[in-house]
Every structure is written in structure tokens, then in C-alpha cells.
Fold each of these.
Amino acid sequence: MIFSKFLLGRRRDQLDEDDLAALEQAAGEVRPVPPRTLLVEKGDVVSNSTYLVDGFMCRYMDDRQGQRQLIAVHIPGDFVDLHGYPLKKLDHDIATITACRIAPVPHGRLDSIVAQRPRLTRLLWFSTLLDAAMHRDWIFRLGRLEAVKKLGHFLCEVEARLRVVGLSDGIRFPLPLTQADLGEACGLTPVHVNRMLRDLRERGLVRMQSGEVTILDRPALYRLSEFDPTYLYLDDFNAER
Amino acid sequence: MIFSKFLLGRRRDQLDEDDLAALEQAAGEVRPVPPRTLLVEKGDVVSNSTYLVDGFMCRYMDDRQGQRQLIAVHIPGDFVDLHGYPLKKLDHDIATITACRIAPVPHGRLDSIVAQRPRLTRLLWFSTLLDAAMHRDWIFRLGRLEAVKKLGHFLCEVEARLRVVGLSDGIRFPLPLTQADLGEACGLTPVHVNRMLRDLRERGLVRMQSGEVTILDRPALYRLSEFDPTYLYLDDFNAER
DNA sequence: CGTGACGTTGACTGTAGTCAAAGAAGGTGG
DNA sequence: CCACCTTCTTTGACTACAGTCAACGTCACG
């Protein structure tokens, strides 16, 4: 039982037994990966996609001086580079942040799924498009928001996603990122991240210490950060707000 | 014959006759749309996807004060919101920039394609992932590049894409965007866009006037803007540089 | 106990935003 | 065909947000 209670950003009960079994069968042996390890490099031709069982990973692109821009942060239950299946060649790097456990899924086995299971195929397609929807919100965040809002917005996204897989209770959640990592995600320098976290703390919205975030006032944080979880397509899940 | 010589960002000869015919059949009547017209609004449930036959369109999200952040710019031959097919509900607005001609493609007809044509389905999936790859480069651009590079990078992308569909000769191409539009794409104010265009002009890299761009020194522009067309998956097409 | 990574703060710099005004360009109606 | 109006572009002066540089503090780990 590799695939977690929630899958591809959806509640698993949208998957029937058969489809779930097919996925389980497609996945290879789970293996551990150390923290801060490069898994796939830009330009690599990939023949596996990675299902993240446990830990935090990220995707990023480097600028000319080697400065990273994170493209996505991945949490347990994410199909990290499923898009590598149709694209074949990756346009960015993939690395672990913490120690992780991952399950490779050979593309050959995905071929059989696509040939035989149109509904599961649609779900897989959907899951890659969820990623694209998150990309769009990152574009919005980086293009239109000022520093405090960028950080708040990022924290809102991660919290909402962790809540779906049961890793946030809506108030506290683990976030094993350094301030430098946050900077690479939000297009800010580590120093400014530090200042903006202080700002969020002083506004009574968020506290962050030793890899754990506490949301002190979610409605206010959503308002400040102009965060609207529509793009996560959580539907009912988000009725509670 | 609606679908242009190049399709979904690919040379059409990757499509066989049958698949192409199926697509042609799926498309509804081509209709004109005036410039600066909102076609689909965030949150709308869509039952058609839009194939852009002619003109320029864009997708965008608004911040709280109604300021736009463009998410994508679309050129003739793009399947503008194919991702609306699996997602059903849109997370952003879609509007024309210039007068356009568009062909709606009902999702019901896409269902038949998915059921009957696995190869074409894969190509459609691929095309939505090309979009996602462009999103990633927008994230990089907005997060890591300074203003001149942002603009240069954007112009490089549009030029490369227009070249694929025969609308750029590699030096001059039409770009009917105002400086305010460019600002909305690059996360800059119109005033600063103006200054950075002057900068690009004075460096002898790019000239832009009355809706037409001239690339004066492409290699230098690529270098300055840290532009690497890998993410467009143009393959052979880009061997020429 | 020492070392290295991470976090925090202050002083200074520089890039981009804001405000304002005037000049071109393009479209419309008299 | 010209006059007018609107939209877009251009420039200057000023402001402010975020980056840079530097130093110090803190914590975890070997």
C-alpha cells in the first residue's frame, strides 16, 4: 500500500478499487533518498516518474549565476514528475529537500494504463493540470504581490495542500524549508524573507520556527495574501474555508 | 481546414491524416471576436475549449485592486484552454487582445477522441503540458530576472513561438501589445516597461514600434535575457539556434 | 567544545514604482 | 479632410521596497 489515503491531490475514494490496484502494481519498489539530493537534471530523458511517499521535494531552474528559482514544492502524495511521461525530456531539475521515500513508476507501465483505463488516464491527466494550475498561481504571486504577500500566499498554498493529505490540522504544520528555500520559492533574498517573516509574526498572522509553521489567523492571512484556493480544485474539501 | 499548418506547437506532420480529420470534425464553426473582449471568466464551468485560428489572446488573473497578471499569451494555432477539458472549471480569465477568429471545440467531442484515439489523446495531453512548461519559464522569469531581462526573455519566447507557426522570420514579427500589456505579462509598470524598451533599443538588441518587433541581435538578446528555448520542446526546429 | 549552517539585525544602495505632464498616434464624426 | 478625442508613449523628479554587505547570534552536530 504505497499510495496514500489521498492521491494526486484528490480524495482517493474518487478512484475505484481496480484503478487503485493498477496504480499500486505500476509502481516500483519504494526507496529512500537522502536530503538535498539531485534526482533528475534539466535535459535528462526520463523513463520513470516519481511518486513521493514521504518527505519534501522541489523542482527548480537555475539562472546564469546558479541561483535557484523554485517552480514547485512537493509534499507526500504528489506525483512529482508525471508530466515527464508525455514530455519525455525534463526542462528543470528535481531534488529532495528532506530525506524522502519515493516510488518510481516506469513509463512502460503507464502506457498500459493509458491503453486500458481511460478513466484513470483522465485522472492522471487531471493531476498534471493541477500542477499547471499551481504554476499559474505562482506566476500571479511572483508578478503581482509584494514581499509580505508573496510569503503569506506561499504559506497558504502549502498549508491547504498539506491539509488535504492530513499533514496540517489547519493551524500547525511541518515546513522543513530554510529561509533561503522560501526565498528561492518567492523570488526574494534570504535576508528579506527573514524581515517579512518578522512582519507576519508582528501582525499576529503566522509564526514559523524550527521547521514548523503556526497559522495564527487564517482569514486575515488569506485576506492579506490575496489567497484564493480555487486553483487547487479542492471543491467540497474547501467549504469549511 | 481550420487547423493550421502547425498544430499545438508541433509540426502538423506528426499528426496522421485520420487524427487531423478527427480534430477538424470536432471543431465547431469559426467565429470572430472583437478585440479586448472577455471570453471566459474565472470560475466559469466550461463545456468548450477554444482553438485560436487568428489573432492574439491572453489568460490572466486579477489582484485585489483589479490589476492584471498575464499568465499566458496565445498566438494563432494555440489550443487556448484545452486544460479546461479535464479541469472543467477555469481558475482564470481568458480574453482577446486583438480581433480574433476562434473555433470552439465541444468537450463531448473530445470525449470521443479520448475514447477512440489514444495517440491523439497523448498529443492533446502533451499540448497541455507544453503550456505548463511555459508557465514554468514564466515563473523563472518573474522570480529571478531583473526588468530588462524579463522583457527580453518575454520577447524571445513570443518570437520563438511565432516562428514555429510562420509568423516570424526570425528578425521581425508582429506583436500587437501595448506597453501596459507587456507590463502585465512581466510584472512591471507601464512606465518601467517603456524605460526598459529604450534600454534594449540603446543596447542595439531590439526595436519595437507600432505593433512590430525587430530583433537586431538574437544571440546577444538570448544571452542577456538568459533565454533557453529548451522548454518549448521545439527539438529539431531549434537546431538553427 | 568547536565548527558550520541558519537566523537576525543594521546601515546603505539601487532598482523599480509613483506621480505628473506633455507629446505622438490613431480613430471618429462633423 | 480636418479637428478632436482618446489611447498610448515618453520623460523627469521623487519615493520606497527589496537587495547588498557585514557582523553577530543561535543552534545542532560531530
Amino acid sequence: MIEPKLTVGQLATATDTKAVTIRYYESLGLLPAAQRNSSGYRLYSAQDRDRLVFIRRSRALGFSLDDIRELLSFSDHRQASCAAVDAKIAEQLVQVRLRIRDLQGLEQELQRLIDCCQGGVIEQCRIIESLTERH
Amino acid sequence: MIEPKLTVGQLATATDTKAVTIRYYESLGLLPAAQRNSSGYRLYSAQDRDRLVFIRRSRALGFSLDDIRELLSFSDHRQASCAAVDAKIAEQLVQVRLRIRDLQGLEQELQRLIDCCQGGVIEQCRIIESLTERH
DNA sequence: ATGAGGGTTATAGCAACTATAAGGTCAAGC
DNA sequence: GCTTGACCTTATAGTTGCTATAACCCTCAT
């Protein structure tokens, strides 16, 4: 059984991406220039779909498109050591953890602000006051 | 004692902001058009500085410049109820918590990826494989 | 008077899309 | 056979919150 090729809209639906985003990735070279049918429509194979899934999964994990370009080039060198991949994932984990700590700081600050407001008018509102104080 | 006015660079230093950013805020109307000296240099009062501190503190808490525009307008209506301010902070807290949960999901995913890699070559690397699987 | 270190404006670039315009294609229903 | 609507094409501009660059002006110490 031959694989059916997908149009950009079908691929978009299949991968929960927007068609414009797919074309955007192509324009950046993250996806190869798609095959075209006789009237210029893009056609995608299962392999193209896999590559897009890879990109979207990586994006969902917080990698930048530049990071992803690198990850993709790793995945194209099937005989290379996977140490570099490992390192890249580990570094991303570090970044994510930093960001979490960051946000937990904000969370506490915001909670503190909410706690210190007793209602009433702005003039007496300790929130607005707090925001004007330097740290 | 009269207040000394600050130049943009001095204000920048005093508030840990960059001069360009201050001018940018002015261009957006977040800061009022600054007073100028005879040769066109911007001059800032303590009140201007307070407003900038407010903006920067709010940015540090993750508010967008649009949010901040709103917060500033609240703080300019000193007799209004602070309920709206409260609500805005509470909403931001919700968003921050969502983002934290999000990132904790990523954290686990990344950890899982790292755990499943046994070293070796890319071809056998379960990380790359995992990234190509749809969720 | 010259150079360093401020200041001024306008414009372009960054990431990762998203939106819009202006048009070509295709399958279905009448 | 024709129209309608949903798709496709490209190119360009907008989004957020800055940052960088260019090209110029001002001030002060040497």
C-alpha cells in the first residue's frame, strides 16, 4: 500500500500545527522544501510528518528553533554518540528548573501582595504602594 | 531643599533600567513626556522615578506593559476601590501558577528523557525516538 | 580644540509566530 | 457548465519588549 501524501492543511490537522507555521518552518529550513503537485500545492510524506512531530514535541519541551535545528542535525547523524543530545536535554532541564524557581518567587510575591490588601480605596491600598517601593 | 532632576542615564542607573528602555516607555505613553533642559536633554523628577519603579516592579512580577498601563491608571484614581487592582494581581497569580505547572510538566518529561538514554549512538537513542512519537 | 562620555532621533532587528491581502485551485451541488 | 466555499499560493506587516545601529549634538576636562 502506497502512502497517501498530505496537503499542508491535512498535515496541520494531523500534527496540531497551523498551516502557516508549517510554511514558516520550511522557510527557515527546519523542514525541507516540500514536494509540489501539478498546481503548486505542497505534499507531505510520513517522513515529513515525523520531522514536524519532532519539531513540535521539542518546541513543547521549550526548545528554541535554533536548539531544534541542532537536535535535528543530531538525529540525522545516526552513528554519532548521543552524548551531545543528552547534554542538550540536560541543559534544557537546568533552564526549566531555573525558570520554575523564578516563577515560584513571583508566586510568593503576588501572594504577599494579595494578603496585604484589606480592601478599601486605592489611596490606602498597600499593593499599589508596594509596587512603588524599590526592592 | 529642592529636588535634583535626573538625566535619563542617571535615572537608568538609579532604577536598574537602560536609558533606551526609559525612552521606549515614554514613547508608549507609560511615562509622561519628560521635561527637557535647554539643550533638549530629558530631566526626571522623583515622581517620574516612582512611576518608573512601579513599572519595573510590575514587569518583574510578570505583568505585560498593557497590564501595567491598567495598573497605572488604577493608581492614578486614588479614591476608587482597589478591588480591580486586587483582581488583576489575583489573575496574574493564577497565570503564574499555571505556568509553573506547565514547566513542572516539562521538567518531568525532560527528566524522563534523560533517564531513558543509556548512552551509545544516536541510532539507539531513545531520546530522539521519543521526540518523534506523537503524544 | 579635542576627545570621552553623555545626550538626541530614527530605523531595523530579535523570536516565533499571527494576520492580512490578493489571488489560484478544486470538489460538490444545482 | 457554473457557482460557491473551502482550500491552496505568495508577500508583507504586525505582535511583545526590548536591543542594536547610525548619525548626529552637548558638555566638560585636558
Amino acid sequence: MVAVKTVGRLSIYRRILNRLLSEGAKNVFSHQLAVMAGVTPAQVRRDIMSIGYSGNPNRGYGVADLIESIGSSLDDPEGQKAALVGVGNLGRAILTYFSGRRPKLAIVAAFDNDHKKFDRVIQGCRCYALDRLEEIVQELGIDIGIITVPSGEAQKVSNALVRAGIKGILNYAPVRIQVPRNIYIEDIDMTMTLEKVAYFARKK
Amino acid sequence: MVAVKTVGRLSIYRRILNRLLSEGAKNVFSHQLAVMAGVTPAQVRRDIMSIGYSGNPNRGYGVADLIESIGSSLDDPEGQKAALVGVGNLGRAILTYFSGRRPKLAIVAAFDNDHKKFDRVIQGCRCYALDRLEEIVQELGIDIGIITVPSGEAQKVSNALVRAGIKGILNYAPVRIQVPRNIYIEDIDMTMTLEKVAYFARKK
DNA sequence: GCCTGTGAAGCTATTCACAGCT
DNA sequence: AGCTGTGAATAGCTTCACAGGC
């Protein structure tokens, strides 16, 4: 199993590589990827090593092959499905950002408790009533939940997701959610991050 | 100067403490804060130590005092101002999330190049034409920029922010931006994070 | 000559574990 | 008895530096 931080960087490399591919690049050196990803060349080589891919000392890494190789490490060959809970501005932003971006990973259902949103299709993703969450998550075989509801509802939504059998949660609500240890959870705390930037903008 | 990760956690502790304060709590132990923040008690104590605050072995930490102490480490006494560039769904979500949350840190201007948005006030924040960015950032004394424009425009926007004298950038566009070394930059890469969750949802 | 792959070194961050206090 | 504060130990992550290959 690849380390958490390495997975993050591999995802970034892949995005860069896809752009390079579309620009017609055949090969790339670790120092070039490093600049584009904002890391050191040694870091790039280590990360690529960790998925067992090998470059060529003369030509660097094959762009297409490396994309392929990252895919076979990161992606589920069957594809994975995510559900988004909370169709506010942030939820819609995520649906827009993400729609059709990655073939092996799609947000296939959205949930909200505002009945004006029910059955509407936003960015190719249908919106359901929140109380149908467990039913639909199981029916569609979804295993990732994205929480974009207000803080006060986050734990309740998380519990429902876990009951429905989800395995990973991406939480945008600014509270720590308690989940069983076998669930992977990642928090994106936008307020905290802005405060961090403010602090270092001052101190640097 | 406090370490990057510590600043992040202090911001989280503060949010928890504010909630505790509003619930009438007077004191709190490191192990209680630890559970609520999702870290270890030793971590909490180290972080608090790093800002020079001291608790009491009998009563733990004073809630109000600790909030005060975190504030005097993290906040600029004069207050700091931020500008948001790109008033799409994500931009609006951030304005909503953040409006009036922290007295010492406010988003005071938004920029977009859609003229239908000019002069509209969104969550108490006025929207200006993108080409007035440098002028207004300087006029208002803004020193933090939040980038929520599409990838293709992010570097250009970042350059304008830097020219205008900004000191820190929070970047939501999924590209690494090149900035001078004296600018602090933090990236929030939502696609990358979702891919991380997807990976560990599978592997755990 | 300039690259990759990688053992070893170096750093940073976290946790242990316990003295000291109340 | 149960907490905080903290030196020391540990774990995790990144970079160095160089052998080996083209």
C-alpha cells in the first residue's frame, strides 16, 4: 500500500501528465515533473519508484506509460462511485469541478433535504431526498461519501453513510466526525486553511 | 514562529473552544480537546505549549484564556483583509462559509470578469471587475488572495495579486502556481483529495 | 554528461513516559 | 489520583549523494 502523501502526489503527477500527453509530449524527466508539481526531483523519483514503474536514464519517463502505471495503482479497475450530500454552493461547485473528469471515479448521486432539488439533474448527477440515502447508496453500490452539509448535520449524515456501507468519506464540514476505524476519512477545512495562510502571510 | 501544522491545529482548537465557551464550559482537559479535534492528548499539550500558554494540572486549560492566547499568536492585532478572485459556485461557497466568522480576518472584496456580477454585493462583499484588482487591493490594504478561477487563469491572477503586494495565497485551482519565495502559498486540491479518499476506501 | 534508482543520512513531527504539581 | 509540561525516543518523510546505465 502506497503512503497517503505519495498517493496525493501521484494524483497530481497524473493530472500534469495528462496535460503533457494532450500537448504531444512523449517523455518527461523527473526534474521537469518536479517543477510542475512543486516538489523536488528526488521526491518525484521516489514516488514513481513506489508504484514500481521504471524510467529510462536517457529519455526519462514515458508519459503515456506512466499515466497507465499510476492508474493501475490508484484506480479500481471496476471503477468507484461517490455520493455527495448537501447540494449548496459548495456541493454544486464540486459537482461541476468533478463531472466527467476521471473515468474510474464518478459522483453518481447527490442528496439534499430541500424538496425543490429532488430529481433535478445537476452536472449529470441526480439529486435525491436525504432520507433515501441508505437505499440508494446500496442500490448503486456507492462506496465514497462527500459531506458538504452544515456542521450541525455532518455527524448524522456520516452515520447514515457508514450504515449504508460506505468505505471512505471526504468531509468539508468544519467539525471532526467520529467514524469506525475501518473507514478512511479526509477533512478539508477551508477556514483553517485560510487562517494558516493569513498567519504566514504575516510572519514570512 | 509556530510550525505550519501546529497553526492549522490551533485554528481547529480555537473553533472547538469557541463552541465550548458558548456552551458555558469554563475549563477543558487535553484529552477532551484531543477527541474533539481528532488528535492525541500529547499533541494538544505540545501545540498549546508552543504558544506559551499553560494549563493547570487540576482544572486543565481555561477555555476563555486559551482562546485569547491562540488569538494573540495567530491573529494580526490590526486585522487582515483578503480578496477572492473568481465568483463562481466555489467562490460563493467560500464567501458564505466565511462571512463574519472571524473578526480579525475578513474577505473584503471579490473579483470576476463577468460584468453582470460587478457591484453586486454577495455575503456582504462587493464584486469588482477583474482589471481593477491591483488598484483595489492596494487601496484597501488587502494582503491575502483566494484564487477560485479556472486552472488556465490561475497563474495570471496570481501574478496580478503578487504585483498588487499580496503576501499569502490560498489556491483552489488545480495547478501549481509559481510565486516569489517570499509569498506563502497553500493549495487546496479537491480532485486530488477525492482520489486519495477513493484509494484508501479501497485499500483499507 | 546527464539521467534514473536507491541506500543512507537528515529532518520534522509525533508519541512516550514520567517528574512535578495540586 | 489524575492532570500538565517536557526531555527523550520513535516514527515518518524528504533529501543527499552516488553507483550504474545509456
